[in-house]
Protein: GntR family transcriptional regulator
Organism: Streptomyces gottesmaniae
Amino acid sequence: MDSQPKRKPNAREIAARIRGEIAAGTFGPGDRLPGGRAYAKKLGVSLMTVQNAYTQLREEGLVEGVSGSGTYVRDTAPGEPGPREAAQRLTDLQAEVARVSTELAGLVERVQRLEAVVGPTEGKASG
């Protein structure tokens, strides 16, 4: 039995979840996203957290807010990638950034181990 309380998602994680749903086709062009208050209650987070997630998606060009009506998946102009393709590209890009970050962390660790063995070279005078 799991005694740990379930961690509540932050705005970035909520945006990633919705971005994934757009990429998967769960939400298509013109579809309305869940209302902020109801979605916040469902996730156990504040309304502000959901609003911040929706703002992030708006800044990415995936959704648009319609005053008094809600937040909708953006319909694109002819020739533009649709929201599904754009969301998939963003998801792929995030995965690549995570991969590169992991590799970079490994390189930093290796350099630190080498410096521990060789000693720092910076600041040593020659001759």
Remarks:
- The two ends are 67 Å apart (CA to CA).
- The chain has one domain: 11-118.
- The mean pLDDT is 86.
- The beta strands are 63-66, 70-73.
